[in-house]
Design brief:
6 strands; alpha/beta; single chain
Length: 206
């Protein structure tokens, strides 16, 4: 399901322009997806609140859902994790016709990478940091580096300060929300234009 990583951007948490830069890049990535105006946008937010560092995805999912974003899979109340990721991916592709799947997850990295947010065209291989081998998921990937990784991934996630996870989740959520609203506005404008010209266009379940 995943694709080779291309068009990658890295923004740092401390940058004043972190969210706008991430938004701009997400819009470019979405625009490069063929048929974006007729395909549903789906957001897969991977993780669990059982480990502080792994709560990034569910925090993002919960915030987006609260803001009215549709097609959210993974939040604090209903997390998507190693145990149900494969089934959830199957559900997504059963429920949505050829979706543009945006996957969000936490990541362990080098000490100098902590606080980085990365986004690219391609999938996420969730669970690598903790020794799980899961299929790559997503057309567009967004990750936040929450801690430095060692040999014991679960302990690194467990010892991650909540503050950095929350800060990363806010920047990622804001960027996704802004990009989502712009895509929906563009789709609505295109639909109004086609309606005025008498052209029938497919509806989009976003």
């Amino acid at each position: 399901m995943g694709k080779k990583v291309v068009n990658k951007i890295v923004v740092k948490l401390g940058e004043d322009s972190a969210a706008p830069k991430l938004t701009e890049h997400l819009l470019r990535l979405m625009d490069q997806e063929k048929g974006i105006n007729s395909r549903p946008l789906v957001f897969l937010c991977i993780g669990s609140d059982r480990y502080t560092g792994d709560a990034l995805g569910p925090l993002v999912g919960s915030y987006l859902a609260e803001q009215g974003v549709k097609n959210i899979y993974g939040c604090l109340d209903s997390p998507v994790h190693a145990g149900n990721l494969v089934d959830t991916a199957r559900t997504i592709f059963n429920n949505h016709d050829h979706p543009v799947l945006v996957a969000v997850d936490a990541c362990l990295g080098k000490i100098g990478e902590v606080g980085n947010i990365e986004a690219w065209t391609g999938g996420i291989e969730a669970g690598i940091a903790v020794g799980n081998r899961l299929p790559s998921v997503g057309d567009i990937a967004i990750i936040g580096v929450v801690n430095a990784g060692g040999q014991l991934g679960y302990l690194d996630l467990h010892s991650t300060p909540l503050s950095i996870v929350v800060k990363l989740s806010k920047v990622i959520s804001l960027a996704i929300l802004t990009a989502y609203r712009e895509v929906c506005a563009s789709e609505a404008a295109a639909y109004r234009g086609s309606a005025n010209s008498g052209i029938n266009r497919p509806t989009k379940d976003t």
